[in-house]
Amino acid sequence: MRILFLAHAFLPEMTAGAELASYYLARRLGSRHEVAVAYVSNQRDHDGLSLGHYRGVPVMRLHARPRQEAAARIGLCHPSLEHTFLQAVSRFQPDLVHVQHITRSSLGIMWRLRALGLPFVYTLHDFWMLCPRITLLRPDSRTCPGPEGGEACVREGCYRGTTFDPYHVRVATPQSRTSWKQRAFKCLVRLTPGPVKRALPGRLKDRVAAQMCPQAEAPAEPAVTPEMLLYRDRAHAFLDALALPDRWISPSHHLRERFIANGIQPERIIHMPYVLEDLPRLSPPEPVSPVVIGYIGTLFPHKGVHHLVAAANGIDPGRARFLIAGKGDPRYTERLRAHAHNPSIEFIGEVTRDRLADFFGRIHALAVTPIWFENAPLVVQEAVTARRPVIGSDIGGIPEVITDGVNGLLFPPGDVTAMRACFQRLADDPGLVGKLAAALPAPPDPEAAAAKHERLYAEVLEEHA
């Protein structure tokens, strides 16, 4: 079987959960199939395709200059990148394409795959297909149930650099409505091949026709700004695209249910765990005081690290220590350090994969503190394999692995008081860490997860035969 992965990024240029999951699956499948990974390279000063390898996995780097058109910035279309991807497809000649992510690339790639008649499946790592902010977090950090056909994106002001004021609504003129459509769909009309146009949904083709004949448009409706309306159209286009892949893959039950609620048919979205390898395998920690609680991951607000720091500030430094590993937004990281008043909080920088076992060997429990519907955090599975209990947010896929009071401790996301109480329990009872660790589930089986992917590929290919 010839399998081409499409990823928004890949090792070593970017290292996070989706990139690692893609690499481990590609590496294991590559032992018995022809597998290559096409990904959007960070080298974006030119357009084109370059070839290479990463630790035995063939890679096809997609180089494309960033485009400034609004439709490209929010992921609707990027013609030059789509063209480069088609070059990769022509060169590799896959039997099936496994899409890992299309952020940083283009929704148009999915339409091109469908126009070519290529079987493809798509693994959901987050909410990009529903949310332009990826996280289903509104600007004020409230969780969002979904785009509501784009109405929620407009109402809540979920776009860069704009705050929606419902008491100051501007009415767009017919000319302004036409101009933003022309900007958004110019590349689609001018550069998209005929087969792809024919595969577009009727609703999107109607919009294109309307922009080509603006005099036929209905009278202008009250609106806010052209950018807001473009985000509404983004939601429609991405929701239409939910019908394109042969199957969707969800690593968590929670993510699966979210996408079913937003339009994917239940029989077309399969729960399938990640293929994870190279994880640290350690013995459960011995009772000790002070207890050492670690965090490892990216440092961004949606990860809730500021809540962790606030909770740790209230713990006696003689009873618990906190190690925070990772990198991310420099300004956010600076503010975290400034607000870490407890001398037992230590920022240790990024921990590379070859030092992962050392990190878990230094801690007794792991804090996983997101405020968004985190899918299936790889770091939770890393903690399970390392036999370190998790103190985690009761959100997303975390409670699918961690049961409060049994093999870890859970708290409501963003609740500093409840998180501090979890930390205090571990500090007050040194033996609790060992009891929780003993109840952790068995580490994930990478071969079983890879075999499940192979069966799905075979099923999809049989449907296309």
Please, could you describe this protein's structure?
With 465 residues, the protein is of the alpha/beta class. It folds into 3 domains: 2-129 and 242-276 and 446-464, Glycogen Phosphorylase B (Rossmann fold); 148-235, no CATH class; 291-438, Rossmann fold (3-Layer(aba) Sandwich), CATH 3.40.50.2000. 38% of the residues lie in helices and 15% in strands. The chain contains 17 helices and 14 strands. The strands form 2 sheets. An 8-stranded mixed sheet has the order 3-4-2-1-5-6-7-8. The chain has a 6-stranded parallel sheet with strand order 11-10-9-12-13-14, with helices on both faces. Helix 6 crosses helix 8 and helix 11 (305-313) crosses helix 15 (416-428). The protein is globular and about 65 Å long.
Question: What features would you highlight for this structure?
Answer:
single chain; Rossmann fold; 3 domains; 6-stranded parallel beta sheet; alpha/beta; 465 residues; 14 strands
The strand count comes to 14
Question: Radius of gyration from the CA trace?
Answer: 23 Å
> How is the main sheet built?
8 strands, mixed
Query: Can you tell me the CATH superfamily of the largest domain?
Result: Glycogen Phosphorylase B
Which CATH class of the largest domain is shown? Alpha Beta
Q: Can you list the strand order of the major beta sheet?
A: 3-4-2-1-5-6-7-8
Residues in helix, %: 25-40%
- Number of domain units: 3
Tell me the overall shape. globular
